Amino acid sequence: MAKEMRQVITSYILPILLLLLAVETHAHNVTLLLANHPSLSSFNHYLAQTHLADEINQRNTITVCAVDDGAMYDLTSKGYTISTLKNILSLHVLLDYFDARKRPQLPDGSALAATIFQATGAAPENTGFVKITNKRGGNIRFGLNGAGDVSSSFIKSIEQVPYDISIIQISGILLSDTVSAPTPVPAEMNLAEIMSARGRG
């Protein structure tokens, strides 16, 4: 009887559990969701190039603030390294869920939302937070914490997997001097010098 029970578990129950685990682990794919929106293709491309898409796909309850190809052209034409681009785009991934139907709870008309950049620990103080403000007439604005009046407007909801991932479009790139500063490149190793130093040791 015990042997038969083990066979049932191995043959039927275990594969079902593994399938459920796979579905839970891969609840969304941000690049596939964005693929249906040609005007956001450059944003989608750089999410993949910077490997930020992989980090997004591993998280739940997030909002991706996408920008159109014109805004991305303005950004990429500045000559930033891929590491700096990743930092900038990390500011466009909020660690909270927001869409047109779920307006954020905004005490005093505004709230701060942490971003993936803030979660990396690389953000000085609170520079990795985005301030969401509900202006008069229902105009929702997104701006970097401490960046003054520089902000982008909510345009529309793009895609949603309710309370898991929301993709919205905003009017422009969220950028600050802190995040756009060049990311240090690791020093190159000179193999000949290393071997020579070892030989002298």
TrEMBL record:
It is found in: Cell membrane. Keywords: Cell membrane, Glycoprotein, GPI-anchor, Lipoprotein, Membrane, Proteoglycan, Signal. It is a lipid-anchor; GPI-anchor. Residues 27-174 form the FAS1 domain. SUPFAM superfamilies: FAS1 domain. The keyword Lipoprotein applies. Residues 1-27 form the signal peptide. InterPro entries: FAS1_dom_sf, FAS1_domain, Plant_FLA. One of its GO terms (biological process) is root development. GO terms for cellular component: plasma membrane; side of membrane. It comes from the Eukaryota. PROSITE patterns: FAS1 (PS50213). Belongs to the fasciclin-like AGP family. This is FAS1 domain-containing protein.
